[in-house]
Amino acid sequence: MNREATFLHQQQHGKPLFSNVLWSRPEQKNTAGKLAIIGGSSSGFNSVSETYTAANQAGAGTIRVLLPDSLKKTLSKFWPESEFASANKGGSFAANALAEWLNLATWADGIILCGDLGKNSETAILFERFLEENKNLVTIAGDSLALALDTPTQLFEQNQLTLVLELDMLQRLLNAIRYPMTMRSDQNIYQLADLLHALTQSYPWAVITQHEGFFFVAYAGDVSTTPKTNQSLLAAGSAGSLWRIQQPAKPFAAITSGLYDLTYKQ
Predict the structure, then answer these.
(1) pTM score over 0.70
(2) How far is Cα 128 from Cα 193, in angstroms, rounded to an integer?
(3) How many domains does the chain have?
């Protein structure tokens, strides 16, 4: 790839790519977006906690959290604002939790499926049915995407979708959809940008990932990089997704600005 490729946009401290978007976000909490976070199982809920914290720090308006009721005894006293839906015997969300997922999605401006959902066929079916019926902005982060990779057809037409992926999960996605390009163990940032450029021209997704000290955002063929310090990819996904919720007409600019704000906000 030519390093001067017009689709690659690099921002750095003091030089945001979209300063107009950066300074025009909602200032009042009641106009800063309604975010739903869904995740967790009896095996863990760290991704839910991290997503909640990152979204708060990024300036979310109102946040609601939905967990399987296998965690109710553990969390209800310490996290009183959390809500619970049916769990299966394995401690993950049961198939009949679909109504609660969809009701929450109807309330929200956007949803983050943040991970720790467990690995079982019942939750995978729930996940697939939710993607089929939900019409709102949705972000898939952490290990959540693994639930969809056996039958990824529901992902193909999801133009309201943001994927927050480590590179190994990105490779699994490429394999699942039989994409003609592949990851290389020694690829540099320009080769990754080339791959993300091609992928998001082929599919209507926004993608957030990280490589060699940079966060990457890709959408509709455009790719941005933002230097990272100690922020996690999940925090970047939470911030970027929230900014997309707040400025949905400008997905690429909004997500890229969210990562600038996360990295350089003092």
Answers:
(1) yes
(2) 29
(3) 1
